[in-house]
Structure formats: C-alpha cells, structure tokens
Specification:
Peptidoglycan synthesis regulatory factor (PBP3), Domain 2, 383 residues, Beta-lactamase, globular, alpha+beta, five-stranded antiparallel beta sheet, seven-stranded mixed beta sheet, 2 domains, 8 helices, single chain
Length: 383
C-alpha cells in the first residue's frame, strides 16, 4: 500500500513574490539570492549586460584558490613583479603599490586584490600563474563557463577598462555563490577590514577594505566593490546572520553613497521580510519507513542534497512537505536504494520532489522468523 508521512512543517509560501512591487533599489540592474535555498528574492533586469569592473577580481581570486587546492600553487610562493604590473601602481588606479623587480608572495597579492582592490596585484598574480594576463583571462572565462556563468567574458584580471570584459549581475551572483560554497576558508579574506603589506624598500603600507558594508552593523562579510566611469558604482555583497546568508549584486549606482545605502537596504529587506526553512539536510535521516520481514522494523530515509525553502514571513499557511513510499518495504534493503519521494506542494499543487534513499542496509529475516511474522500478520494484522 502507498504510505504517506507528513512532516510537521506546514507553512505558507508565496511563489511569485509580489512584495517586490512596492520595493525598489536605485541601481540599473540588481539581484538578491538566499544562499541556502538558492531562491531569488528580488531581481531588477538581472540579465542586462554590464561591465563588472573590480567585481572581476572575484574570479581572479577563485583561479588562485583552485590552484592552491590542487597543489599547483601555494600561498608562500613568490612572483617577480613586472614593469607591466608596476605601472598600475601609479596614481589613478587602485593598487597595493608593488615595486618593479620585487618578489611578492601569493598570499600578499591575494590580500592586495581582495582588500585593496589592487590592479597591480591582479596583473602580478595573473602573470605569475599563466605567463601573461591574456592567458590568465582565458582561464577565467573557462572557469566562468564551467560554473554556469553563461553571459560572461573576462578580458583581463582586474576589470579595468576593456569593452570585452562583460557579465551580468546574475552571473556575478553565481560566481559569488561558488566562491563562498567551494572556498569557505579562503573566503574569510573578504571579511578582513585591513591589510598591511611590509613592502621591500619602503615603510609598511596599510589599507582598509573598500567594501563599505563591512563597517556597518549588518553582518556583512564580503564581497567586492567596483567602479568604472561608464558603469558607475557596483557591489557584490553578502551578509551572514543567525545561520542564514544572502548574496546581493547590483550595478549602476550613481554614487558611492547610493551603493552603500541601497545595498544595505536590499540585504536588510531580504533578512526582515523572509524566513529560511530547512526541510532536509544532506545525508541526514528525515523519517523512518516501515520494513516488512526485515531484521529491523524501520529504515531511515534521507535526501542526497540540502533542501531549503525561503518563505515570506507574513504568509505561512499552504506549504506542505510529505514523504511518500510504497510500504511496508520488503527486506532485504541496501543502503542508497531509492525508497520513496519527498514532495513539496503548495495549495495542493506539486512544486518539487526529491528521491529518498535508504540510510542503511536491512537484512532479511531467516525462514523461521519470516514464517512466524507472516502467521502473526494473518491473525492480528500486525506488521
């Protein structure tokens, strides 16, 4: 027989977030994502092509983090600074003020990129890894395609003026999500407020992180500012509060002040108007299913992915999560056998469903025990 077990979660979801109608962010293109559920809470022309400016540097860091993880690069390794990189230490460019022919560690270059937004550090890192910045940009674009950034092309490592360096706020969000998910330890660099570099041939230089949200009581821990005269001001940002993370990306703010205030407004709106609901945790039993003729009467079932939903706070009525399986399930059962479905529905309509797997093996009873249990069932109807 088909068995359905309803979880205690009975909540409301508004599938089309109409609350957007009365809310606006003063930027040309905007997106806000709940990190764990992956749901988009707010969007304003999110696939409009932009010049990503210094948000490009997120990918520059990702390429280095990838190579460090694979063992092809380490933080203590030093790169020789070329004249090409040194030239971007001049006035008018964000820089960490490296000197030609100096040798700077990968870690210092990364900090110079992430915190000081150093264009000189970007070129030094790119040349050290790939030989030329052009070759490094090819690596960046390949990685972008690999992680699903469908409308992005990187033409350099820094994001400074190049009409072929293009993206969208949706793609920058995808990149930011990848950074945080895949490199949680390395991501901590993005929350550091200050960077001091003990440079060769001069006094140590201390620079503050350019992300204005780090200095607000918001819970921000990243990510990266951007500015180009044509694009104006942009920001990829993230907050983490009470186990919940939001990622926002916006471009086309008119002023630095707009960038700071409007980004804070967007993240605060997401935190205060929505709740994150945990439905299932990866590799963790959700419920028990009945077993027939097994050495155990129950077997745990689990999902092979985290499942979350983001719920508008004022609308908690119609979200139903249920576990459905054809049971009792006859033994033997092997771990990871598909035993049923986890279904999420709204007002009786299915939103999504996920396979549920056996959490462990359940062996079959011996012949005598099976016979005894079958007789008991015939007499008493007790399985």
């Amino acid at each position: 027989m088909i068995k359905t077990k309803f979880l205690t979660l009975l909540l409301t979801i508004l599938l089309a977030f109409n609350s957007n109608a009365a809310f606006d962010i003063k930027a040309r293109t905007v997106i806000l994502q709940d990190f764990l559920s992956g749901e988009i809470l707010y969007a304003k022309d999110p696939d409009k092509s932009i010049y990503p400016a210094s948000m490009t540097k997120i990918m520059t860091a990702i390429i280095a983090f990838d190579l460090i993880r694979s063992g092809d690069l380490n933080l203590d390794e030093k790169f020789l600074i070329s004249e090409n990189a040194w030239r971007l230490s001049s006035a008018g460019y964000s820089s960490m003020f490296i000197m030609v022919n100096d040798q700077v560690s990968v870690e210092n270059l990364l900090k110079g990129i992430i915190m000081a937004s150093g264009n000189d550090a970007c070129i030094a890192l790119a040349e050290g890894i790939a030989g030329t910045e052009e070759e490094f940009a090819v690596m960046m674009t390949a990685k972008a395609k690999e992680i699903g950034m469908e409308n992005t092309n990187f033409a350099n490592s820094s994001g400074i003026n190049n009409t072929e360096n293009v993206s969208t706020v949706r793609d920058i969000m995808i990149m930011s999500n990848f950074l945080i998910k895949e490199f949680p330890e390395e991501y901590k660099y993005f929350s550091e407020k200050e960077f001091t570099w003990d440079r060769t041939g001069g006094d140590p230089i201390t620079q503050g992180n350019r992300n204005p949200l780090l200095y607000k009581s918001l819970g921000a821990d990243g990510i990266k500012t951007g500015y180009l005269a044509l694009e104006k001001y942009s920001l990829a940002s993230s907050v983490y509060r009470n186990g919940r993370r939001l990622i926002a990306v916006a471009s086309g703010f008119n002023t630095k002040n707009d960038r700071s205030r409007q980004s804070a407004k967007l993240l605060t709106w997401g935190l205060t108007n929505f709740d994150l609901i945990e439905i299932a945790k990866i590799n963790t039993p959700i419920e028990n299913a009945d077993v027939w003729l097994g050495k155990k009467d129950l077997v745990g079932v689990y999902a092979k992915k985290d499942i979350y939903k983001t719920i508008p706070k004022a609308r908690k009525k119609f979200l139903k999560v249920s576990i459905i399986y054809d049971g009792p399930i006859q033994a033997p059962i092997k771990k990871d056998d598909i035993l049923g479905k986890l279904k999420v529905s709204y007002k009786g309509e299915l939103i999504e469903e996920h396979d549920l797997f056996a959490f462990e093996d359940v062996k079959k009873l011996n012949v005598f025990s099976r016979l005894l249990k079958s007789i008991n069932f015939l007499i008493w109807g007790d399985v």
